[in-house]
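TL;DR need structure tokens for one chain.
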Amino acid sequence: MADAKVIPFDDDRSRGSAVQRPPRRRGVGSRRKTAEPALVGDVQPLPSRARTQDDVPVTHEEQPPQRPQHDGGLERRVASGLSFLRRRLTGDYEVDDFGYDEELTDQVLMSLLRPVYERYFRVEVKGIENIPSEGGALIVANHSGTLPLDGLMMQVAVHDNHPAGRHLRLLAADLVFMLPVVNELARKLGHTLACAEDAERLLGQGELVGVMPEGFKGIGKPFSERYKLQRFGRGGFVSTALRHGTPIIPCSIVGAEEIYPMIGNAKTLARLLGFPYFPLTPTFPWLGPLGAVPLPTKWTIQFGEPIPTDGYPPEAAEDPMLMFNLTDQVREQIQHTLYKLLVQRRSVFF
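>> reply
TL;DR here they are.
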């Protein structure tokens, strides 16, 4: 099988474009009313002690039975689910030019990823306030973990924690869109090719775009080099941000490096399968399908302070020295935050 063709994000070639979690309802509790005691006859207060409720006869009037209150949550969820199925069957739903299906993402795909995010990796999110509530922005993150689960967890982190419930549109390598099933799911989730043209279109539409410039060099590096950032390329993401004046938000992810400790790489098998690498871990392929289950590490995702780009002139996007300096600034900020989070971490799993 031919080698997978990886198109770097900073490639200037034109690429053609392919192709709420509902708010929790708080239970309505009824306040318990206490009837005031009714006095019968002339009851004189006791001279030696304060009058108590036991000293006053109370009439027990029969209260009318109260109906149990239901908030209709179950019925509403069933109705919403049936309405969703009807729209899917009749084709009454919308996707954008990139194939992004917002309704399917919110109601199905995020619901499938959320248990992994909340219960398995127990992701802790910091600095979510650094992501703007509206307008375009470029999130640049480190990449690791043998399989690209870090991108999916970052997408859930933004969706579930940002006050505006923003959607993160990730830029992915060609290999993602060459795999059956994975291709369709990636498009539905809002992912698109890691090329300058698609990134500029999304930023121009005011979208929140995510990129991991290390690519396969980061995700497929050996375990001995964990949390050491690889080369960021020629700064194509910086050039794109400069053209649109959008802020660059560094993002550091700790925990993904240990889910599949890569202790070897079967390069011959990788070439036969057309993969950039074929990982060998302590559990895979020795344990078969069971070895493909990631280790339940504890994750931290921190979004750093935005690096503004709107103060530069339009021609700055063509200045190689400026792009190099900004790329190095972003990389250094991510690396410094990774070291800081690692020092604070007490355990890989807890």
